[in-house]
Specification:
Number of strands: 0
Number of helices: 10
Distance between the termini: 36 Å
Structural class: mainly alpha
Helix content: 55-70%
Order of helices and strands: HHHHHHHHHH
Radius of gyration: 17 Å
Strand content: under 5%
């Protein structure tokens, strides 16, 4: 019965279009939170296995995994201890994050580089530190976000500003960019920048 029900729901959900994906997740999260810890752990494991199976960074998979771990994981709702006070301590993690965002909405190497450089300039004006990462993985992104969660609030907000600058480098915002930025803001406990909030 469950599979038949899912078979009927799938075409209805897909017909709503990609713009409805995040609102649908928002609607589902309260019900998912009410499930047992064992059930939630099983769901998170299934999502992680699916996301890393092909060893490629797919923005939507990253978004779903971020939101699920943030709201359904064992540490959901707990305060995160500050371990880092300066962004200089986490430049590799910032590079990983901005590299992923730059690649999520662009197809040409020049556009990717321009977006990444615009974002990284918010963090560090030294060009030699602006190293665009080529080989990204979901594990690397998850690890970067995990460490950035332990950053003090003001530099964490700076990271969000850099992410927004990366998204807006070409004055256009794709659905994938909006989704990934919302997931990053949610994971880092920071509000979505006002301009992008209006777009979203």
């Amino acid at each position: 019965t469950g599979w038949r029900r899912r078979g009927k729901l799938y075409p209805l959900v897909t017909a709503l279009g990609v713009e409805a994906r995040l609102p649908l997740i928002d609607c589902c999260l309260p019900a998912l939170k009410n499930q047992s810890p064992e059930w939630r752990d099983h769901l998170l494991n299934l999502l992680a296995d699916t996301a890393i199976r092909d060893q490629r960074v797919v923005p939507w998979e990253f978004v779903v995994l971020c939101l699920a771990r943030r709201h359904l994981g064992a540490t959901s709702g707990q305060n995160t201890r500050v371990r880092f006070r300066s962004l200089k301590q986490l430049l590799p993690e910032v590079r990983t994050l901005l590299s992923a965002i730059a690649r999520s909405g662009r197809t040409t190497p020049q556009d990717v580089r321009q977006a990444f450089t615009a974002g990284f300039a918010v963090i560090d004006a030294e060009p030699n530190n602006a190293i665009l990462e080529e080989n990204l993985s979901l594990n690397a992104l998850q690890n970067a976000l995990h460490r950035l969660r332990h950053l003090a609030l003001m530099p964490r907000m700076k990271v969000i500003q850099a992410c927004a600058a990366t998204v807006l480098a070409d004055a256009a915002v794709t659905t994938a960019e909006t989704e990934i930025l919302r997931a990053i803001c949610d994971t880092l406990d920071c509000p979505l920048p006002p301009l992008l909030e209006r777009i979203a």
